[in-house]
Amino acid sequence: AFFWLLSLLAASLLWFVSVRLSGREDAAPLLLGAAAAVLLQELCRFACFKLLKKADEGLATLSEDGRSPISLRQMAYVSGLSFGIISGVFSIVNILADSAGPGTVGIHGDSPYYFITSAFLTMALVLLHTFWGVIFFDACERRRAGGLGLVVGGHLLASGLTFLNPWYEASLGPIFILTLGTGLWAFGTAGGSFRNVLKCLSCKQEPEGRAMLYSALQVPPEE
């Protein structure tokens, strides 16, 4: 969350300087500012990865068995969720403040679906950042430039679609399709499979699964 706040600070300073120098606040600088904010967020995500990677190596050095107690996938999930939560908070806080009054949405021809659509967009943004964190960390670990490019491209696409508002059908639908596709991609990246889902949904507990459960809980099988 702190790294995301750093990216927000850098983007705000960049926007302030560019507006001061150009004296314009129309759509073109706004689009460029949004793109710059996305790139700064992904740069800070990479810095977060490097820091957590160093921390992981330090924890492995201090542990008795030479292995870190926290896996890289766990770090990726927590990092992505933190990015998503803090991003969602900053996205919705001003909207929530406006919802307290004194105006009424729709009274001047505005869309009556403004608040509910903003809530769904914020939810999608939180999920997307969580998925992007898992994919981004895995791509950095495996040195896959294509994965990094797709994460950055997906982030730019999601941000660009919000400029279609208040035409919510054109923005909300594609963003949720992007969220679903990115979620499936992150699920596969984390080692998930359709077979594992079926085994989870079925109420059968195989001996192998029982042994893994005992091992995870550190309980002897005879107990």
- Please report the number of helical segments: 8
| Total individual domains | 1
Low-pLDDT parts are: none
Spatial separation of the terminal alpha carbons? 42 Å
Helix content: over 70%
Q: Quick one: biggest sheet?
A: none
Strands, count? 0
Mean pLDDT: 81
Radius of gyration: 21 Å
What is the 3D form? Answer: globular
Residue fraction in strands: under 5%
Briefly note the structural class of the backbone. Answer: mainly alpha
Order of helices and strands: HHHHHHHH
Describe this structure in words.
The structure is a single chain. The protein contains 8 helices and no strands. By secondary structure, the chain is mainly alpha-helical. The protein has helices at 2-22, 27-62, 72-99, 114-142, 145-161, 168-189, 194-201, 207-217. It has one domain. The mean pLDDT is 81. The longest helix has 36 residues, at 27-62. It is globular, with a radius of gyration of 21 Å.
In short:
Helices cover about 75% and strands about 0% of the residues. The chain is built from eight helices and no strands.
Please render the helix and strand layout as text:
Layout lengths: L1 H21 L4 H36 L9 H28 L14 H29 L2 H17 L6 H22 L4 H8 L5 H11 L6
Feature tags:
transmembrane helix, mainly alpha, 77% helix
